[in-house]
Specification:
heterotrimer, A mainly alpha (306), B alpha/beta (599), C alpha/beta (258), A: 306 residues, mainly alpha, 13 helices, flat, C: 258 residues, alpha/beta, four-stranded antiparallel β-sheet, 9 helices, 25% strand, globular
Amino acid sequence: MTTTDVLDVRAKARRDKRKRQSLFILYLTLGIAIFLGVWQVLSVWFPLYFPSPLGAVRHFTDNLMTSEWTRRWFAHANACPALIGSGADIPPYCSGYVLHLLVTTRNILIGAALGTILGLAAGLGSLVFPKIAEVFTPVASFFGTAPIFIAAPFFVIWFGVDVALLTTVGLITFYTTLLMYFFSRRAAENIPVGIIESALTLGGTPRSIFRWVYMPGTVPEIAGGFRIALAGAWGLGVLVEVLGIQRGGGFLIAMWRFGVGLVEWPAAVVALITFFGVLAVIVDGILVVGIRFLTRWAESGRRLGL
Amino acid sequence: MKRLRGAIVLMAALALLATACGGDTTTTDTAAEAEARAEAQRQSAAAAEAEAMAAEAQAEADAAAADAAAAMADLEEAQAALEATMAAAEAGDAEAQAALEAAEAKAAEASDMAAEAEAMAEAAAADAEQAQMELEMASMVEAPEIRAAEVAMGIYPCCADLAYWQIPIELGWWDELNITITPNSPTYHYFTASQEIVPWLQRGDGDVAQAWVPGSFGTLETFGQTLPPIHFADIYVGYAILVDPTSDAKTALEFMEEGMSFSEAATAAVQQLVGKEVHIPPHSTTQAQYSDAFFAYLPQWWEDVQEDIPALDGEGNPLVLLGRDGTPVLDDDGNTQPIRITTNDWRNYSTPVYVDDPTIVQLSAVAGRIEFAMPYGAPTLVQMMRNGWDPLINFAMMYEYDAASQQTAIASATVGGTGLLARREWVEENKDLTYRIISVANRIFAQLEDPDTQYELWEIEANLINEKRQLEMEPEDIGIIWDTIDPSFNWEDQEALWDLSMPSYHPETVFRTQIEKLKAGGVLSANYDTQAGLEEFLLAQELYYDLKGMQERSDDLFARASGMDLSESQQSLVDQAQVFYDRYNFYDSLRFLEAALIG
Amino acid sequence: MSKIVSFEDLWCVFEHRSGQLVNALQNVNFQVKSGEFVCVVGRSGHGKTTLLRVLAGLQPPTAGRVRLGDEVATGPGADRAMVFQQDTVFPWLHVRENIEFGLRAGKTPREDRERITQHWLAAVGLEDFADSWPRELSGGMRKRVALASAMAVGSDVVLMDEPFGSLDYFTRRNLHDVLLDLWRETQKTIFFVTHDIEEALILADRVILLAEGKLVDDIPVTLPRPRDEDVRASEKAVNITKVILAHLGITEEEATRA
């Protein structure tokens, strides 16, 4: 093969790569276009259940910072509970969707973060201190068998609907802890025993093995588990709010649930659900970037889309 | 003799015909009535044909009889001539002999003619008899058909006033009307949440379903008009703010025991709610704010009023405060006092915590978890009261102790009840089924009020609600609900419901106020035409008056039938009509009466 | 300070799943002087790896003991670094960090750590790949990383369990040279498990022959170094090979065919 041939081959490889990228963008655009098209068609046939995509966007932007609907109809400044009865003027943004959505996002992220910390601490800690596993595994297995979405209503009853921190954050923390415990245990168990033995014969102490073997070595599976946990946490957080929590996006959806037939109903519900869908995708996208950085050593991780 | 017999037969035929045609042929616009009328016309035509045949046969008989009479006269004349001739012959008169022979020949001829005429008369009489039989066959009456049909009905088994449609299913009343309730396999369609009802109907999955009527007002600008109520069941007066038994808060009755007037006691009781949380179901937001009536006892309520909402009667006049006797309450200057419905909102004083009724019950079961609650479902209310929760204040107290107050007027102007929502399109295509379904509702309410039957009906409701809502209601609890919390409108009460001239709860008036409140709250457009919208929406009113008219015509026909000599088949139909009538099925009652008496 | 490694009355008995007892090692006794290159040879399943794992402290003996000097070896430690047959390079650490691992665990000061690492990177010829991920290296290069890691930790004894078994011939030969250079340079005691007689002849000072868990022969390999093909084809080498084969129960024809 001459130098010219090699250059040709490389140029072709570059062209192929660009072509693949273009096709990816094309399919992505096509997918979004089909989705929006189906949505638009449905909005023509069933306008009372599917607003046009633009209608949903309009509702969202109209109600984001301040919402006449929530102010006059159902919310009554629930997004700013501290101001109720304080005698202070309640600022207009208290009625907007923004605070509700921020509250939900905050609760979900706090819950997921707490759960991840606890789950990892228990899961990875049990590698260093096996007693933790002896105590934690049976308990986690017992609660793990009950689908968390079934357990959600009980959290609402046990912890009440007023203290969202206990109920929403508590439930998400509980759920994420269980999930991350099992994921971290599994991730650790999946590290080849030869690697651990190698580390031991190189003078590895429990501490150094934890730091240099388990921690980085479990990242791909733990990161995958975290994505799954967070995806579930979005649904769970909103569900708990729908069940009775008095603030957040789930609360707005719960209230709009009773507005079936009102002119604004479909736009509101679709806008809120879409918001959480888009937010979940964005957060997941950020996660993917972070996880890619952390697992850049793992070729298989890239192939899996991590 | 035979002429006489023929005449009697004819007279009887005419008499029957006259009877058959003698009814008042009142017509109605319904298809069923048109069908009945056509049937009667067909029977009339058959009777007229038989009558014509009988008349023709009679004419033939008359002609034959006349011929026979003439022949007889000829015969008599011939016999007289023969006798005279014989007498002359005896005298040996040859001429007379010849005359005799001639007379004998004439007599024989006349005799032949007479025989022929008699044969003709007999044949004509036979024809007349045949015609009479045909006429009798034609006057036999047949029972109108009750067509077999399926009705897609969903049931929301939350509450006494929504679950009662289980009663006719279990008692087999639908079978009597040839109606099958669907879906029924593997079970009937039970809603698990109130917000499922309207979409289910709207999708066309269902034809009818009982629902909270004011809950539809928010949808009047979208599809509410396609799902009008065809019957009104009750008025719910069970609104109450309940208080946890472990709370230090006192009820209005407890304040009264300390010597306060009710008005003062109510104010003191409601004052305890200011700044507190009240647990209330989320659908309270789409309906009129019944809590407003309680909070209107707060002095600040009237200071904070931003805007009044028109509270008008059916003729557009302002609603005024009425005393117990129904006369207007006058102020110090002798003027009537308008009822003041305002845009003020109870949530400006207390914080609503929106949770479903079942969750309220669950939360209330944990001591101290919640302090105040306002469940909307009567079973929830009863269950909580049985668990020790007391009404801090309720509508019943206000009606009893403070009937002529502005607050009670607000309560009266904002109450509501359940009704059977139906797809308007379906109703237009199935008027017969619509009337029959309404009759079943009226039959249920009659039996719910009948001490001999009510327990069985309460039991059916309690079992269903307990099963579906995980409650522990006794049948008697259902009775308490119907008697005190949720009085129903039986057939006789329905008149007062719709006749604005009668002192009663009038949906048209009450709902107008609630729609105005929704307009003020931004749920409906500010320019929504309340009057036109309500007139279109309240299909139940039109159907009530349809049935009322049918009942009155049935009454007339029963009276007429009692003065008549009815055939067996007629009597049978009249008896069946009476059964329908007794079951409030005036539609089929009228159809059977018309079939029996008019044809 | 180099120590004599002594295997004393060493037994290792495993219970098979069926309940049958298997003597992986039976009364093994021998000593290895400091700086010796010992190859342990035997057929598969005859106790080579078990012997190495007991020495590494990864497998406790059923009876007997292993001493390093006067001390009985118990658990694993940096004084007996081991290179495994399978790929045990940490994939999440750069090449440099892999080599540093033992030093970090031993809390070697940073400056020393960097110096030592750099030295071993150079020693195995991977300076240019110091910041590469293991996945970017070939199998042979990863073995060099493992070798460098074991060497860098500063142990007197290095254990190698068929480390080049999965590599192609040329790579393996290349690594033999690298290993011998390192051994000569460091004078560490090396235990090298192999079933490849030629490999043993190239590397070993002694060949310990194991059969059914028993030490059946201890053969000094006094061939001159470097042991090129001529040396390996010498009569002496052939005789050693014959002895080994005889112990292993393999005829010359079989060996030739193999």
